[in-house]
Amino acid sequence: MILAPDTAPDSFRHPHLGEPDQIWCYRDKHGKPFFYVCRFVSENGGKNIRPLSCWQDKTGKHQWEWKHLPAPRPLYGLYSLAWNPYAPVLVVEGEKTADAAQQLFPEMVVVTSPCGSDAAEKAIWDPFKGRDVFIWPDHDQPGREYADAVAEIALAAGANSVRIVEVPDEFPEKWDLADELPVGVTGSRIFQLVKEAHPFSKDQTKKDLPPVSPPDWPFRVDEQGVFKKVETTKAPGETKVEWIKVCSRLDVVARTRDSGGKSWGRLLAVTTREGQTNEWAMPMELLAGDGTAYRAELLKLGLEISPETRARYALHEYINDASPQEWARCVDRLGWHGQVFVLPNQTYGNGQDERVLFQVDRVSDDLFRVKGELEEWKEQIAKLCAGNSRLAFAVSAAFAAPLLHPASLEGGGFHLRGGSSIGKTTALQVAGSVWGGGGVNGYCQSWRATSNGLEAVGVAHCDTLLCLDEMSQINGQDAGQTAYMLSNGQGKSRARKDGTGRPPAQWRLLFLSTGELSLADKVNESGGRASAGQEVRMVDIPADAGASLGIFEDLHDFDSPAALADHLRLNSIQNYGSPARKFLERITTNPEHLTEQLRRARQEFLDKHCPRTADGQVTRVANRFALVAAAGCLATAMGILPWGGDEALKSAGTCFTAWLNQRGGFGSLEEQAGIEAVRRFIQAHGKSRFQSCNGDYDRPIINRAGFVRDGQQGREYLIFPETFRNEICKGMDSKRVLDHLKDRGLLIPDSTGRPARVVRLPSFDDPIRMYVLKNEILGESGDD
C-alpha cells in the first residue's frame, strides 16, 4: 500500500457508478495526496460515496482501487492545519460541509474525519495538540453524538480547549453549514453561535456535582445564599431547629495549594446581587485570625454577610469545613508557570487536568482589564501604527513581553527620549492598550509611583508589559536604580519577624519608558554616572522619527500629528486588553513550536542588523530588539495585528539603527565611556591643572593633574597615575580604560608595553612614572 502516491489517478470513473459528481482530496501536511473521496449521484437522485486509494500488489505494481485506507486515517484539511499552526480549528461532519464552512470562516481551519459520523475514533487527531478546537454538529442526534466523540478524542490528543456549538432548536432537522441559512437567520448569527460555543470537558459532569459534605453537614447553599442549621434546646426534651442566613451565595469551588504542597487555600465564588460571579483564591492563613481580613475582601467582591455574630462564626466554619471535589494549583505571581500563563482572573494553557490560579491575600486591583472588541482595536489603533516606526515598535514590544521566557532572554526596557509634546505618551498609551486599561492613566504608570513601590510593581507585571511615563518625576539616582532593578528582576532580601531570611521578590518583564532626557543624562543630572550595564538594560531610542511630525511618520489622512494622537488616545480608552488575551491563547497552545518560531524570526533580524563581531553589549541589546521584531511578526501571522508581513521587522530595524547611531557603533560602551571621561577631563581642566613642560606658564598650578609637552609625535598629556585612577576613572575600572586607550593608539606605553612611562619633569629631581596620552585623545579640537 502507498499512502502518498506521486500522481493522481488517470480517471475517477467508477466501473458501475460512472463519473463522480464531486471529488475531495485528502492531503498530507506537505500537500501531497493521501487518497480521494468521490460522490456519485444516480439517475433517481441517490448518492453514493466511494473512497479511492493507491495500493501496491505483490509484484510492486501500483494501482488505484475503490477502497479505503486502513484505520487510523488522516483528517480532511490536514494540509491547512499544518500551515496555520495558530489558527483555531472548526470540526464539522463531512467533506462538503467542510468546504462550505471554510468559506464562511476563513480565519479558522476547517477539518472533518473520513468515513462518516460513526468513525471518529478511526481518524488521526494528533494534530489537535495545543489547538483551540470548535465543533459544529449536524442538527440531529448522530451529529450531536459525533460532536461529543470528537470532543473527547480532541482533549485526549492534547487540545488546548474544546468548545461545541449549540445549534438552536428552531433550526431545521439535519441542518448543517453546507445548507442554506434558515429563514430569518443571518451570517452574523452564525458567527455569534461560534463565539458563544460552550466549553467541553470530560470532567465537566464531575465539576457540576455539589461538594461532598462532611457527616452532619449543617449548611445548605441555594440562590438565596448560604444557610446554617442551628438547633437550640429550650426545655428538657424540647429542641428548636432553625436555618439562619450566613451570607449571600458563596460557593467553595476548589481546594488550592502550591506546587510544593504548601500555601493551602480555597477558591471562592461570590454571586453578586446583579448575578455576576467573582472568584478569589483565598489563602487559608487568613482564617488564623478573627476573619476581618478575608471578610473585607469578600465584601469587596459583592458578598453580603449577615451582621449577626453567630453568622460570622458560621461563615468561618463554612469556608474551613467545606469539601469541594475540584483541586487547583496556586501561584503568587503572574506570568509563566510551566506551560501555563497566569493573569489575575484567567489562566491560559494546559494545566495538566487542574486549574492554575493566582492566589493572594487580598483581591488585586489590577489593570489587566478588557474593554471593546479586538476587531475595533485593530481598526482604530493597530492599523494606524503601520508606517510609524515608533508606534509599531511600541506595539510589538507589548507582544514581546510574554516571550522573554520562551526565548530565554533577560528582562529590560526601551526609553523613548525626546522633547515635550511630540507624542511619546501616545506611544505608551497605544502599547498599554494591548494589555489592559481602566486606570486614571489607562494602563500606564508614573516613574514616581514605580520607584516608591518597585518590588510590588515588578511582581504585578511579571512576564507582561510595564509602561512608565515621564522620567523627569524622579531624581537621577532613583532612575538608575529603578531601571537596573526592573531589568534585573529581583528585589531586596529581607528578614522575617523571627529573623530568618525572606525570599526576595522575583519577576521578569519588558518595560517602555518616556522622558525628555536619556538615562545617562538623568543620572548625570544628580551628579552620578550611568554605568554601561544600566544603559544596556534600558535602551535609549530617539522619539522623534525625523519626519518633522514628532513621533509620527505617516498621519493616515489625519490633518495633523495632534489629531492622530488624540484619536489614538481616545480609542485606547475605549478598546483595550483583548489583543494580549488573544495572543496568550495562541502562544500557550503549542510552546514547542513557539520556541522554534521565535528562534528563526530572531535570527533573521540579527543576521540583518548585528554583525558577529559586535561587542557583547550590542549583541544583548540586538537580541531584545530581535525579540520585539519576532513578536510583531508572530502577532501579525496570528491575525491580531493588521499589518504587512515585514512591518514589525522594519520598525524594529529602524529603532535599532537609531539607537546604534546615537551610541556610536558596535563597540563596547565601557570603552567609549572611559575614553570620553579622559577626553572630558582634559578639555575641562586644560591649563588650570596641566603644567606646561616648556616653561610658558605664568601662574602656579593648584591641584596639578599632570603636564603637557610637545613630543616627537606632537602634543602629549602626562597624567599622574593616582589622578587617573581616583579622579578621571572614578567609578570605572582604570586598568580597562588604559587597555582601551592603548588599543586605540592613544596611550604611549613604555618599551616593555607597560602603560606608565618613566619621564623627567620640571620640579622633580628624579624620573617618575606617568601615563602619556597623545593629542588625538581630544578628537578634532586639539586645543587645551
Structural class: alpha/beta
- How many strand elements? 32
Beta-strand content: 15-25%
The residue ranges in which pLDDT falls below 50 over 5 or more consecutive positions are 204-212, 780-784
Report Rg: 35 Å
Question: Distance N terminus to C terminus?
Answer: 89 Å
Helix content: 25-40%
Pfam families: DUF927
Organism: Desulfoferula mesophila
Domain DUF927: 219-503
Protein name: DUF927 domain-containing protein
Q: Can you offer a commentary on this structure?
A:
This protein has 784 residues and is α/β, with parallel strands linked by helices. The protein folds into five domains: 1-70, no CATH class; 78-202, 3-Layer(aba) Sandwich (Dna Topoisomerase Vi A Subunit, Chain: A, domain 2); 219-358, no CATH class; 374-590, Rossmann fold, CATH 3.40.50; 669-778, no CATH class. The chain is built from 23 helices and 32 strands. Strands 6-5-7-8-9 form a five-stranded mixed beta sheet. Strands 15-14-13-16-20 form a five-stranded mixed beta sheet, with no helix packed on it. Strands 22-23-26-21-27 form a five-stranded parallel beta sheet, with helices on both faces. Helix 2 links the parallel strand 5 and strand 6. Helix 18 crosses helix 19 (616-637). It is globular. The protein starts with 21 loop residues before the first strand and ends in a 10-residue tail after the last strand. The model is unreliable at 204-212 and 780-784 (pLDDT under 50). This is DUF927 domain-containing protein. Pfam families: DUF927.
